[in-house]
Design goal:
Length: about 350
Amino acid sequence: MLTLADVHAAAVRRLDPVHYDFFAGGSGEERTVAANTTAFDRHRLLPRVLRDVAARDLSADLFGRDLSLPVLLSPTAFHRLAHADGEVATARAAAAAGTVMILSMAATRTVEDVTATGARVWFQLYAQPDRDATERLVRRAEKAGCEALVLTVDSPVFGRRLRDLRNGFLDLPPGLYCENMRERPDAEPRSIDWAPRLTWADLARLSASTPLPVLVKGVLHPDDARLAVAHGAAGIIVSNHGGRQLDGATATLDALPAVLAAVAGEVPVLLDGGVRRGTDVVTALALGATAVGIGRPAVWGLAADGTDGVGRVLELLRDEVDHAMALCGADRVAALTPDLVRTEPW
């Protein structure tokens, strides 16, 4: 497996086709799924030469702690559909790579199981209509040792995912549960409730209720980025849910510059959606992202070869980012600047 495309091909061979469609699919006609990747195709790198790049530093600082590379694992649900060890296998790879795993609230392993691997874990949170339920989840994540909360805000209702509807994939198979929604090991799993009444006041309340930094995930509009910071967000993740919510939403790479301008350096800005190679990472960093997240590629690695497969995905990206930085004349992430990127007509 020499590229992420090779890892994807291996995952296709191993996954149940219905489960593959769950991971790969998006909402509606999947225009936004496609837009996320084609946005990177419309950007080209303009390298600098005759710079000393013999030693290169890929580390990134987030909330006072270093990542060994500027690539995180974005939250994706139901990892036990891809591998028996589920999110625990994914976390072990993140720990070995020296990066962060954002654990989905819809994980099929508990947050306690995942943090026990030694991985650095951020907990994704869908604020629930029942505020007490949300508070219990926050306290549980804190107690388990999570380092941050990631409030997903682009899901007031569930995306209309046609592949799942056509496949009749509407619930987990018997024996699998959304483990973090079970308040007791012997309890029936609680499903995630969507919160169409969620407002900025809920973000302010959440930020004030926890010592953990709260990042807001699912921001595309620059005015929302300003509002997030004003209501206590410690970071922004520019995301369209991997194209799984609003079909026709703008690509995340296209939304990034305006969000960065709106935030004006007050908080770190991350991006996920469409990252498939090291040059994609370098492009997003050069445009100003602090780091990027990957979702589907990590799942493909998990399906292909468990912990080793996820590790392979991260190491491929590490090698490709390192190589691209050298060829762009950058010896560290901070040396990747917007003048290195050109947008070409599509």
